[in-house]
Design a protein that fits this description.
Elements: H1 5-19, H2 22-26, H3 31-41, E1 45-57, E2 65-76, E3 79-91, E4 98-105, H4 107-135
């Protein structure tokens, strides 16, 4: 049996994240999603998602739904980022546009990691600012 349009869209989304292809990640989403993605793109290097499980609910044909359990890994200024996500994606009738997203992640990991990341990024900005001052002879 061939994959449904929404399953193809969901798998393409995971592939786009793994390539950090921002236009392809944004394509099936709203503009609000695009704004948050651009800020994260600068923070995470070598970002990869592994699809651990995909469940497709085709019982509601007006709004197809896919649930994915994903493992994420990336390099950041604060060290390695490792987290797990569950994405609940609701699609339009065509299965090609995501009309609603719910994301669940490991909040304990986020609570501990993101303050370290914020501090590392602050130090990186200060270092770059000092380099600019030295380079300009100021």
């Amino acid at each position: 049996m061939p994959d449904s349009p929404q399953k193809r869209t969901a798998l393409a989304l995971v592939d786009a994240f793994n390539r950090m292809d921002v236009p392809a990640i944004i394509a099936p989403h709203t503009t609000t999603y695009a704004k948050s993605l651009h800020s994260l793109h600068a923070i995470f290097r070598n970002f990869s998602l592994t699809l651990d499980e995909l469940i497709e609910d085709s019982s509601n044909h007006k709004r197809p739904r896919i649930c994915m359990w994903l493992s994420a890994r990336a390099d950041t200024a604060a060290g390695e980022y490792v987290n797990e996500y569950v994405w609940l994606l609701d699609f339009d009738e065509s299965g090609e546009k995501i009309v609603r997203t719910k994301e669940f992640s490991d909040n304990v990991m986020a609570r501990d990691f993101f303050p370290k990341l914020k501090e590392a990024m602050r130090k990186e900005r200060e270092r770059k600012s000092a380099e600019t001052v030295r380079a300009n002879g100021l």
